[in-house]
Amino acid sequence: MGEMKRAIAYEESERRKQDRYASTVVIAASIIAAVRLAREDISTSTPRLLSAVANSVNLARLILKRVLGS
Predict the structure, then answer these.
(1) CA 5: distance to chain centroid?
(2) What's the rounded Cα separation, in Å, for the pair 6 and 24?
(3) Which of 32, 34, 42, 70 stands the most exposed, by the fewest C-beta atoms within 10 Å?
(4) pLDDT at 51 over 90
(5) With the CA atoms of 11, 64, 35 and 55 taken in that order, what torsion angle do they form, in degrees rounded to the nearest 10?
(6) Mean pLDDT of 50-57
(7) Domain extents for the chain?
(8) What is the pLDDT of residues 7-50, one digit of tens each?
(9) Mean pLDDT score, 46-64
(10) Do 50 and 29 contact (CB within 8 A), yes or no?
(11) Nearest to residue 55, comparing CAs of 27, 36, 39, 38?
């Protein structure tokens, strides 16, 4: 029974950590996208806009992964 409680506690801890890092990725990706799209018209969804946002998210994830050492 004790092992199950430890496993549940560990999973909960990992979930909280992932939630925290998910918000970090969102903030970093937003900043990266804002810098990349500073002079672009972003009033409509275009392939260029979607590509810049997707690339920003990937870059933010890569940076976070490097920082965490995983």
Answers:
(1) 29
(2) 27
(3) 70
(4) yes
(5) -80
(6) 92
(7) 2-68
(8) 888 888 877 777 777 888 888 999 999 998 998 888 888 998 99
(9) 91
(10) no
(11) 36
Helix, strand, coil share (%) of the chain residues, nearest 5: 80, 0, 20
Q: What letter does residue 43 receive in the DSSP assignment?
A: S
Residue 66, helix vs strand vs coil:
helix
**Is residue 42 a contact partner of residue 49, using CB atoms and an 8 Å limit?**
yes
Q: Which has the closest alpha carbon to 29: 69, 67, 62, 4?
A: 62
Q: Which two tokens stand for residue 8?
A: 């549940």
> How remote is the C-alpha of 57 from its chain's centroid?
6
Tokens of 62: 């890569």
Cα 45 from Cα 43, distance rounded (Å):
7
